[in-house]
Amino acid sequence: MTSSGCPSEYEHRKATGRAGEHEPRDQLGEQVKPSMWQAVTRVADVGQRLVIDRLELMRLETRDDVLTIAKYLLLAAGTLPILLAGWIALLAGVALALSPVLPLAVSLCILGGIHAIAGGAGVYLGWSRLNAMSRLIDEPGNEETTTERLGAPSGPPTGEGAGDGSAT
User: Are 25 and 32 in contact (CB under 8 A)?
Assistant: First the structure.
């Protein structure tokens, strides 16, 4: 039985007495076993279909992921000008609120400086994390794996040198 509760094709043919119906037969009606070459050809065909199906699935999943990312990027790009206009209005209000205490130019410079420092720190943090991520990606010809770079154990699961064929 398959996971859906329906009998498999083999079980159905076995139950109906037609188990060997699709196998080749000789002139006397006797079942002939397929040659090694035919078996290898069948395996190659099935393997090829499996690879093609996997590639098609990967293509469809990638397409869906790209469309989802594009949708979110468009949403962010569309709302960014609204956010920017609101932020500028808020900063102008804060600068005007500080104008009785400080001259308007000084309060604008202070607010601009705070935002420049915060923005620079954000860019630095993002850039450093991006560089750290790029170092984690295995480069061709590099023997060190990502887990070794991160310091995770990469040795045998039990005991030192267990199962590696080395003499102790």
Answer: yes
Q: Please state the domain extents for the chain.
A: 99-136
Answer yes or no: pTM beyond 0.90: no
Those residues with Cβ within 8 angstroms of residue 7's Cβ, 6 or more apart along the chain or in another chain: 1, 15
Nearest CA among 86, 94, 85, 84 for reference residue 114: 94
Beta bridge partner(s), residue 31: 25
Q: Is residue 8 within 8 Å of 1, Cβ to Cβ?
A: yes
Q: What is d(CA 11, CA 16) in angstroms, rounded to the nearest whole number? A: 9
pLDDT top residue among 2 and 90: 90
Q: Please tell me the number of Cα atoms within 13 Å of 94 on its side-chain side.
A: 14
